[in-house]
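Hi U.,

Before I forget, here's the chain from the pilot set. I'm dumping it here mostly so it's searchable later in email.
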Amino acid sequence: MPPPRLAHLRRLLSLHSPPPHPLAPSPVRPLPLLLPRAMAGAAHAGVATGSAEYEEVLRCLSSLIKQKVRADTGNRGNQWELMSKYLQILELEEPIARLKVVHVAGTKGKGSTCTFAESILRSCGFRTGLFTSPHLIDVRERFRLDGLDISEEKFIMYFWWCWNKLKAKTGDDIPMPAYFRFLALLAFKIFSDEQVDVAVLEVGLGGKYDATNVVKAPIVCGISSLGYDHMEILGNTLGEIAREKAGILKKGIPAYTVPQPSEAMSVLKQRASELGVSIRVVPPLDPRQLEDQPLGLHGEHQYVNAGLAVALANTWLERQGHLDRIHVKDHGTLPDQFIKGLSIACLHGRAQIVPDPQVKSEYKDTSCPLVFYLDGAHSPESMEICAKWFTHVTEKDITQPGSLEKPHSSNNCKKILLFNCMSVRDPQRLLPRLLDTCSQKGLHFDQALFVPNQSQYTKLGSHASPPSGRDQIDLSWQLSLQTVWENLLHGEKGLNGPSSSETSLVFESLPSAIKWLRETSQENQSTSCQVLVTGSLHLVGDVLRLIKT
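Structure:
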């Protein structure tokens, strides 16, 4: 590329720095009945369950899930030195050193940023590997080759290669790696053997002690938006959290971030300075640079993630000597490959709209009476973003690409919240942010449903189902969530507002909640139900699995 064109591209992708900037016991209320065991199991009947060998692989993987309290301080860097031993056992040190890695940490948007970056580089003609977490339905979603989930056949082959080698060399002194560490090791094996041109890696948790951080010399690093999450492990202040995320920065490796709160930004810049690198701040992508093409991932916040992805992909191309592959334009828009990559990017469970295929309207030419709006938000900041998206799409009746059909208009619509979050999160920080943002936009929920995640029973297998006995199900957390919600409503509407039985319900299982929603929608088709599913990516994945069967 001639120097003038290179200078023009750098101006187009210019970077700048931003300005500084106890739960009361809930009364026991009547609960909807738990679905029979057979019915709960039938929810998985339409999902491709794979071969018996694949089920055995999933069983082995499940055995690596440690039933350890996540807030245990031992989780921070727990036996980090074991990672080097695992790499030696699997002979992965040299293969990892040869990988051309884009490494991304952050609290919010790191998965979306990785998805955008991978899609851009794939659109530039490179063979790509993408490692993200968590998965929603099938563990193979975590490993994408050229934009597609790894095949079952390849996954089984690489799994047994890693599993057998580790089993032969581990024992009392060197235990088998924990679940996420094993998956990261598996990703390195897959991407090195598949000879990808670029491996895009999303940090699982934190950064400094994350299993992906065995990469010593990535091509470029990125840190997406920071906020309060995993505080039981990463720290109670933005500064402490930022210090953990900055653990992926490396000496001499270009680094980028997005506009951050001043406390977090100062820590990132300090760590970058200690390493002798400058961390450059990327502004949100200007929609005009897309030539009227929409982003593949929806929501205004995605322009922040897209801007970071563009900087990461451009730097990867530049450092690898591949800028000649892209066609720079003179009128201020992105190269065609960048626009294509950003517009075709796909990541389920983030601002996703899915009409329920099992609920049909009785009226000709009318849309689905039950529509799920799914977003895996699970931090206070992402709750606010989720609320803004939900109010926008339901008010404007926007149909997103990928929807099965046009959602209902906002007339005669019931707004329902389907919610759960992990017990390590503080619902008194999550639910007020969601409720307040919706209220400010003029949206009020008619009902809130609180459920346990289905996946806490199913682990990774396809055939497991929730326990059949009522006495085995602990709903104390869901009742606590309901209490927080009711207290918020009473504060908003006064003590004379609707009774709790009208405004919220606790269900013993997710299948029973879905069954209730379907029956309610089918019985009263003059009113459609728009259901916001949020609070947990695991919950979003469980809902997707159930409604798509």
